[in-house]
Amino acid sequence: MSKLETPKQERIGNIPGFIQVDEPRDVSSDFKQKTEELIDRLGVTEYEADTFLQYVEMLNIGDIESLNNKTILDIGSGSGAFKKVLERMIFPRFFVNLDNASVDLWEGRMDVQGDVKQLPFKDESFDYILMHCSVPIMQATTANRPWDIPVSIGEAVRVLKPGGTIKIYPGFMDIASAARRVDGFFLKKYGRMNAEVLLALKQLHEQYPQLRIKLTAVHVREYSAEEGKDSLLEITK
Ligand SMILES: C[S@@+](CC[C@H](N)C(=O)[O-])C[C@H]1O[C@@H](n2cnc3c(N)ncnc32)[C@H](O)[C@@H]1O
């Protein structure tokens, strides 16, 4: 086997039956025209508009109006751009940006500085929980702590209301194509990330048999239409 080939059992195809696998989605991350419209209409920056559109597309948010009057938590919110743009369009009941980075890094644009592994919220507090390019991928790569993934996803499920939804992108990586994309460097990390996400889901499936768990491969046209496969993971309580 060559260096970049991966054993079949590690690939995204081997998903247990309790996870619903949807048809792949083909999405774009090229939002030039929509970004300009948002800048004109809402007076936000290009970065904020682009980040907002990434969330909407990759997390498959659908109807923005459906977030009206809802309680929303953004875990690993970074610049907080999604909340800023959203609140110029609709009125969530409340929206909490949580990030563990220093306040200086994101110029204080998080509402709560905290760690996903120990969320400072009561059980069943939120209707929607968003994790965009934060958990699990940051724990598997930047933070180098993939073993934190099950407790992190478990915490999100704990603070989710019955009937609520968690949206995680990327939830899984197709490690063979990811490896081709980055020259093999992340092969091991993405493999471990997938294994830890799967472990999290198995534990949660036992603890909360009512959970609905859905995985959708996402082909991002600009960089992964042919070879890459990221996935949106959705958990409904
Ligand atoms: C790549 S940024 C994404 C930011 C934002 N979600 C976006 O898409 O623009 C990842 C963020 O996750 C945060 N993060 C990483 N590990 C975290 C943890 N254990 N708890 C809370 N936030 C974390 C980082 O500080 C960083 O701001």
Automatic annotation (TrEMBL):
Cleavable signal peptide: none
Pfam families: Methyltransf_11
GO molecular function: S-adenosylmethionine-dependent methyltransferase activity
Annotated CDD domains: AdoMet_MTases (cd02440)
All residue ranges annotated as the Methyltransferase type domain in the record: 73-166
Source domain of life: Bacteria
Coiled-coil regions listed: none
Name listed for the protein in its UniProt record: Methyltransferase type 11 domain-containing protein
Taxonomic lineage of the native organism: Bacteria, Candidatus Spechtiibacteriota
